[in-house]
Amino acid sequence: MEGTNPVNKKLAAALSGGAVLVLALSGCGSSGKNNDKLDSWAKQVCDGVQPQAKKIEAANAAIQKETSDNSTPDQVQKTDAQAFQDMSDAYKAIGTAVQNAGAPNVDNGAKKQQDAVKELGDISASYATLKTQVDKLDTKDQAKFADGLKNIATSLDKLSQSGNDALKTLEEGEVGKAMAKQASCKVASASATASAS
């Protein structure tokens, strides 16, 4: 049943772009002046992001593995649906971590925080929609299944390229510097980079 493989490879390529979204939350840059309030905010967010980044990385790996095996449509459907569910849950949990941390101690911190929480919620909802789409695919008809996967890969591609603008805005300047100091953000960033490459 090798017919699904080229399409599923496209899906995997599109999915690895999704890992970039986590990178947006894992801060980089060198630390500037001390801001204890901001540092403790960054630690709380980074500690919340780290396990979710690992979950997203594992979901990526599952889909990548499915593309290298000669998997049946049933196996592909099951793996992809679970991966999208995991990603939806992970982005929702990252949103909760940002929400629970409160507004960062910077100019417009509250607005930046709320925009990022909304964006994370939207990303979570998008992955939940993709899961529903995968669940509905007809695995008995190879051609229909391949077409369905192709549409999902296109949606995924759009999702991975679209808006993590609020996340980028959230971690501009001092916030990014504070996050860069956190060990848990460095780990999240490393694993997201690995799965994106």
Concise synopsis of the structure shown:
The protein has 197 residues and is mainly α.
Describe this structure in words.
With 197 residues, the chain is mainly alpha-helical. 80% of the residues lie in helices and 0% in strands. The protein has 8 helices and no strands. It has helices at residues 4-23, 36-68, 73-101, 109-136, 142-161, 165-170, 173-180, 183-196. Helix 2 packs antiparallel against helix 3 (73-101), helix 2 (36-68) packs across helix 7 and helix 3 (73-101) runs antiparallel to helix 4 (109-136). The longest helix has 33 residues, at 36-68. It starts with a helix and ends with a helix.
Strand content: under 5%
**Uncertain stretches:** 27-32
Major β-sheet profile: none
H/E element order: HHHHHHHH
Mean pLDDT: 81
**Total count of helical runs of at least 4 residues:** 8
What is the 3D form?
elongated
Helix residue percentage = over 70%
How would you classify the helix and strand content by structural class? Answer: mainly alpha
End-to-end separation in angstroms reads 27 Å
Assembly type of the shown chains?
A: single chain
Radius of gyration equals 18 Å
Number of strands: 0
Reconstruct the topology from this structure.
Blueprint: H1 4-23, H2 36-68, H3 73-101, H4 109-136, H5 142-161, H6 165-170, H7 173-180, H8 183-196
Q: What characteristics describe this protein?
A:
197 residues; mainly alpha; 8 helices
